[in-house]
Amino acid sequence: MTQQQALQEYLLRLADSDIILGQRLSELVGKAPALEEELASTNVALDLIGQARNWYEYAAELINDGRDADNLVFLRDAHEYRNLLMVEQPNEDYAVTIARQFFFDVWHYFTLKALVNASDERIATIAAKAVKEATYHLRRSSEWVKRMGDGTEESHRRMQDAFDILWRFTGELITPDEVDHAMFKAGIGPDPEQLKQDWLGMVREVAAQATVTPGAEDAWMYMGGKRGEHTEHLGHLLAVMQFLPRAYPDATTW
Amino acid sequence: MYAQMVDTGTKRLKTLEEMSPEERDFQEKIDAETKIEAKNWMPEGYRKTLVRQISQHAHSEIVGMLPEGNWVTRAPTLKRKLQLMAKIQDEAGHGLYLYSAMETLGADRDEEIQKLHDGKAKYSSIFNYPTLNWADMGAVGWLVDGAAIVNQVVLQRTSYGPYSRAMVRICKEESFHQRQGYQILLDMMREGTQEQKDMVQDAINRLWWPALMMFGPHDDESPNSQQSMVWKIKRKSNDELRQMFIDQTVPQLEFLGCTAPDPDLKWNEETGHYDFGEINWKEFYDVLKGNGPCNRERIGTRRKAIDEGAWVRDAAVAYAAKKQQRDAA
């Protein structure tokens, strides 16, 4: 894998995780448990999709095969998507929605924090704006993890269940592969070992305050999103998201 | 807009002589265009009418998120997805803002929402129609927000201060939404395929009449309007507003290269207005009574969101209480 290929892969991972989580959140529009939460949740979705657009635009320039950001979003099939498995998991219980967001936000925050100092100027610029948004996302989702974990008996049970359901998808966030290593070496991505320690540290701290028990570090982990092997959920999500451009391939403007 | 047939609880208008000194003082303030504020004395009927109207308006913003939410997961480009999501978020913000204005009158948000879920409170009939193709996202912005603006621009001068100020802010955002909606249609008509053009005409065919119904019944069928006009809660009659809307919308329709599903629609040189056909009032009252295509789904979705979210809100309250206790200790 060349440096250029690794960079493209890495950008698609960032972009794909953003768009898929944004899409999941958009499914909840009009259905949040409170009006204030409706606004907050949509804010996060808007930030993520906005960030995705920035990453895609850069990725499209590098790929340079005539595809633009929209093509990358709407005309790639599931195996071409590079998002984390975590973000494609369905909404189900609101505790799952929040826990999913929290696990992602911790990863996102520390990743972007490192990308702010990337040797690649374009990446550093995008990350500088994105990290501000991610800081707010993380504050919000950690607060909700604590509220639910240390709220009522029912909310505690639901948050603990959510941790248990989603824990197997956390390994992928902190297990580096060839691309992650290459990006670190190139002075772009975070130090994988540091990212892992930061992620585990913050998750444990918030979990302790929320009185929920995180899974074991050596638990079995379900991985594959970063190389395009997804859970069954992604195909359905894409079927909905990509419907119009797929159904009307001759349409060049919307 | 979004308030249709608001009950004022009055059978006939009182003359100034029949009024108590407080009522008279109040009416004179209104007549002098002085805004009524939350702390001012107001007749109970005025307060109740406003609570009904503002809550209806707020409910409409909230229920109105759903027809658009139906397409937000299927928006065809990143730009359109971001736009649509931001628009829906604005509507949630309007809802919140209007509920706050309503609470200045001593009403309770949760109670009013409960009335909505129990089928006791109304919201605009337009949101009981389905959104069946992507062009509906353009047509809703153009026609529905357009109709709402015609009403709300006038409501910026409504007599109750908090409501009037809410309208000023909301109007700005709605105008933006309307232009955005029209642009969606215009882009499809100018650069789209035949299939896309057909979508636009189809959306207009389905939403045209329901948009005209948003202004409510004819003036002579609107018994509460008179009191609302005297209190300057309403400032123009339903028929006046509907005519204003048609007059401003038909040229835009023609510019799109589309038609309205109304064979009687034509320019009248003498009156300087467009003539148009009769609204299907049976359909209007049916929808108001709950028998529109999506009434059950809309309320069902809202009820489910709030009912299933109860444990989330309870958790927040319980956590806040624990935190307060800990902080105090």
What would you say this structure looks like, in words?
The complex is a heterodimer of chains A (254) and B (329). Helix content of chain A is 68%, strand content 0%. Chain A is mostly helical. In chain A, helix 5 crosses helix 7 and helix 6 crosses helix 7. Chain B is an all-alpha fold and 329 residues long. In chain B, 64% of the residues lie in helices and 2% in strands. Chain B contains 13 helices and 2 strands, in the order ααααααααααββααα. In chain B, helix 4 (78-103) runs antiparallel to helix 7 (161-191). Chain B starts with 20 loop residues before the first helix and ends with a helix. At the A-B interface, helix 2, helix 3, helix 6, helix 7 and helix 12 of A face helix 3, helix 4, helix 7, helix 12 and helix 13 of B.
Topology:
The complex is a heterodimer of chains A (254) and B (329).
Chain A: H1 3-26, H2 35-63, H3 69-74, H4 85-88, H5 94-115, H6 121-149, H7 153-166, H8 171-174, H9 178-185, H10 192-209, H11 233-241, H12 243-247
Chain B: H1 21-31, H2 44-63, H3 65-72, H4 78-103, H5 109-117, H6 135-155, H7 161-191, H8 194-213, H9 225-230, H10 238-256, E1 266-268, E2 273-275, H11 281-288, H12 295-308, H13 310-328
Antiparallel strand pairs in B: 1-2
Helix pairs in contact in B: 2-4, 3-4, 4-7, 6-7, 6-8, 6-10
How many DSSP-defined strands of chain A?
A: 0
What is the CATH C level class of chain A, in words?
Mainly Alpha
Helix content of chain A: 55-70%
Q: How do the helices and strands follow one another from N- to C-terminus of chain A?
A: HHHHHHHHHHHH
Query: What ranges of chain A have pLDDT less than 50 throughout 5 or more consecutive residues?
Result: none
Rg of chain B (C-alpha, Å): 21 Å
Silhouette of chain A? globular
User: Treating each run of at least 4 consecutive H or I residues as one helix, how many helices of chain B?
Assistant: 13
Taken from the alpha-carbon principal axes, the silhouette of chain B is globular
Number of domains of chain A: 1
Reading the helices and strands of chain B in chain order gives HHHHHHHHHHEEHHH
